[in-house]
Every structure is written in C-alpha cells, then in structure tokens.
Amino acid sequence: MSISSHLSPDPERRLWIIHGKMLHCVEWTDIKLGALTVFAAAQMALLKVLVSGGPLAYPALALLAAVLLIGLVALSPLIEAQRQFPWLDQRMDRRQAGDCLIVPQDVAKYPQIELVILLDRYLGGGVTATPYYEDIIGQIIISARIATRKRRLFLAACILAAIVQLGLLWQFAWR
C-alpha cells in the first residue's frame, strides 16, 4: 500500500468489496441448497420406486420431504427479511476479539453501530465520514445475516439428508 492510499483511504470501494463477498456467500449457498433440494426430490422418486415396501421407506421419505421443505424455505424471499429470526440468526452477545470482519458468520453477530466503528478502525478510517458509508455497512449486515441463515438451513438439510443416506446404506447392507 502506498503512502498516499494510506493517507486517503477509499472506504467506499473497500466496503463494496466486503459487500460483494457477502453476496457471493449468499449465491454460493443458494447453489448448494438448490442442488441438495434437487437431489432430495430425485431420491424421493427413486425411493418410491425401488424401496417402497422397506421398513425405512416412509421415514426416509419423511426426512427427504423435510429436506425439500427446508430447501424451499431457504430459497424463498421470506428468508431475506430484515428483522431477526431468533432460531436462525446468530446471537449478538457471542462476539469475540478474533472475529473476522469479512466472514458472514462473524459479521452477522454485530449491530450496525458497532460494525461501523469496527470497520472504521479495520479499514483505516473514513467510514464514519458520511451516512452513505453507514448505509453500505447496513447492506453488508443484511447480506451477512441472509448468508448465515441460509447456511444454517443448508446445514440442517445436509444432516437430514445424511441420516437418510445412512439409513438406506444400512438397509441395503442388511438385505
């Protein structure tokens, strides 16, 4: 970094880069959720045809239906609400000194005012100069919360899908 760029930091460009990282996390999680949802739907159809009479068929279908439901909820615009969901959002009291301010899970923990102050120090000043920068930080927080919500729902869907896979493996192994 040159001396002149340190003396006149460009907080807008840096904030938009962080915002882009948060949006990239949202998009990538959407792709993974879509793939898992399609996999669950295909596996439900396959289960109905191949294992319709097995003892694990109905529990497996129920779990895969739950995976589909979780995937649809995670991909819906309802998950992008700005208000907090207590069962999906991170608790605000779990902040740590080592939080990384470009990782959605860490950014989602902070209220906007605290994040403005932290990013002002993190980026070398200039963030508190205008309300415009604070609005960008607000968008960063919203994107981080959405990414965190979607990631948590994806994790829940993966756990359910893994349980189905283990059950099917067990059923096919003991035939």
Account of the 3D structure:
It is a single chain. The chain has 175 residues and is mainly α. It has one domain. It has six helices and no strands. Helix 5 packs across helix 6. The protein is elongated. The chain starts with a helix and ends with a helix.
Strand composition percent: under 5%
**C-alpha termini separation:** 65 Å
- Average pLDDT confidence is 83
Q: From N to C, what is the helix and strand string?
A: HHHHHH
Share of helix, binned: 55-70%
Radius of gyration: 21 Å
The count of β-strands is 0
Number of domains: 1
- Which overall shape is indicated by the principal axes computed on the Cα atoms? elongated
Number of helices: 6
Summing up helix and strand content along with how strands pair, one would put the structural category as: mainly alpha
Spans where pLDDT lies below 50 across 5 or more residues: 1-5
Main β-sheet: number of strands, strand sense, barrel status? none
Features:
mainly alpha; 175 residues; elongated
Describe, in short, the structure shown.
This protein has helices at residues 3-7, 11-50, 57-75, 104-107, 112-122, 131-173. With 175 residues, the protein is mainly alpha-helical.
What layout of secondary structure does this protein have?
Layout: H1 3-7, H2 11-50, H3 57-75, H4 104-107, H5 112-122, H6 131-173
Helix pairs in contact: 2-3, 2-6, 3-6, 5-6
